[in-house]
Amino acid sequence: MLETGNRRLFFGIGLKSQAIEQISAWLMHCVHTSRPFTAPYNLHLTLAFYGMVKDDDAQALIEYAAKLNVAPFSLTFEETAYWQHSGIFYLKPNSPPTALSALAEPLRDVGEKLNIYTNPHPFSPHITLCRGVKKQPEVVNPIEPLIVPVDRFHLYHSHRNENGLIYEPIKTFLLN
């Protein structure tokens, strides 16, 4: 069992250090915006968001996720996009493979079945680069194609500490 209490949880795909370094360098040199970028250690792709989750429900999510049978796959990112209504600037994958939906959709569905969270939006895979942006950031040069091999996913605890917002992986699940 995990630590006790309600926690803000989500499933996501973490990025390896090479991908984080590539994104960070590109943002620093090729993207102009008035808002700070997502902290490199928080870069990820959300599969299923749940909000505040009780311990029993967190354990049920873990047990469910451990039973998923999805083969490893890769994602390629080379396009940015912007959601004006939420002020989110992000990287989106080129032609996401069906394996990504095969991983995300059951995780989203179980949240509804357990009455934890009903997501009002369809699954839209992305890596958030910046939040609260009033106008779309200027991209001087596009990112070189970023290939992200996916062989695992994590249950994350979203919380704040003295460094600000932290997305902490608390359980890892290997794809098979």
Structure description:
This protein is α+β, with helices and mostly antiparallel strands and 176 residues long. Helices cover 24% and strands 39% of the residues. The protein contains three helices and ten strands, in the order βαββαββαβββββ. It has a four-stranded antiparallel β-sheet with strand order 3-1-9-10, with helices on one face. A four-stranded antiparallel β-sheet has the order 6-5-4-8, covered by helices on one side. A two-stranded antiparallel ribbon has the order 2-7. The mean pLDDT is 95.
Question: How would you describe this structure in keywords?
Answer:
176 residues, alpha+beta, 3 helices, 10 strands
Short account of what is shown:
With 176 residues, this protein is an alpha+beta fold. Helix content is 24%, strand content 39%. The chain contains three helices and ten strands, in the order βαββαββαβββββ.
What shape does the CA trace take?
Answer: globular
| Average pLDDT rating | 95
- What ranges have pLDDT less than 50 throughout 5 or more consecutive residues? none
The largest sheet, given as strand count, sense and whether it forms a barrel, is: 4 strands, antiparallel
The helix tally amounts to: 3
Strand order of the largest sheet: 3-1-9-10
Strand content: 35-45%
Distance between the termini: 23 Å
Number of strands: 10
Following the backbone from N to C, one meets helices and strands in this order, namely EHEEHEEHEEEEE
User: How large is the radius of gyration?
Assistant: 16 Å
Helix content: 10-25%
Query: How would you classify the helix and strand content by structural class?
Result: alpha+beta
